[in-house]
Amino acid sequence: MSDFTIRFWGVRGSLPCPGPATKRYGGNTPCVEVRCGGRLLILDGGTGLRELGDALVQDGGIIDADLLLTHCHYDHVIGIPFFAPFFLPQHRFRMWAGNLLPDFQLKPVMQAMMSEPLFPIGIDSFKAHIDYRDFRAGETVIQDSDLTVRTIMLDHPGGATGYRIDYRGRSVAYLTDNEGRREDHDKALVAFSKGADLVIYDTTYTEAEIDEKKGWGHSTWQDGMRLAVAAGAKTFCLFHHAPEHDDAAMDALLAEARSARPGTIAAIEGEIIRL
Q1: What is the rounded radius of gyration, in angstroms, for the C-alpha atoms of the chain?
Q2: Counting runs of H as helices and runs of E as strands, what totals does the chain give?
Q3: Given CA atoms 262, 273, 82, 127 in this order, what sign does their dihedral have?
Q4: Which among 66, 108, 107, 62 is positioned nearest to 85, based on CA atoms?
Q5: What are 116's strand-pairing partners?
Q6: What is this structure's pTM?
Q7: Residue spans per domain, the chain
Q8: d(CA 196, CA 131)
Q9: Fold for domain 4-274?
């Protein structure tokens, strides 16, 4: 199998916002399913992870997958306690985090999130085999004959990790929760994203909003598009939509972005991209 697909299960940032005003783009927080042939990679564990887990269980079969976290802020991990495959003993997972060392480690962080009085059950309730793997952003975390996953540190409070997945000559860069406009760091991201087929980028705020959000660790579509153009990326994708941006607002943002660079897309829950 050589199919390389990306499916969005959660596209929002900060907190989930389901409802009539967001039903077309979706209201779940970040979760992206990546299929590299028979290999399953999951980017982030936001509320979208619950629906992905239910779909995986319904499909049947043994799951052996990697869950790659950008960071452990709640909107990116809150789906983990509700991920059905974690409660079934036949499945195996590797859960990765690249922003916690040296002050924290992934397994204790998950234990803290799933503990009283915040949550009624702990990670010892998980029956699947889960290997918690800490690394430092900048390392290559997966290197197989036809699959490579490289990482880079992003500019976000507490740190966050960007991922680039290369599979059989095609590639996707996942760069969410990043504050653009820092020239030295942007150059590193351009090099990291060079020639990517798809760049999924944090476009949480508008140009009118971003000045009041300095230091919050997010960007605009203009920031991301400058990066994608400089990197020679094939397709640019708006992601991590602000909860206050309803479907009409997202339509307007996407239209602006497409007028600047035709072929630009926005992440929509349920949509599948084939590279």
Answers
A1: 18
A2: 7, 14
A3: negative
A4: 62
A5: none
A6: 0.96
A7: 4-274
A8: 29
A9: Metallo-beta-lactamase; Chain A (3.60.15)
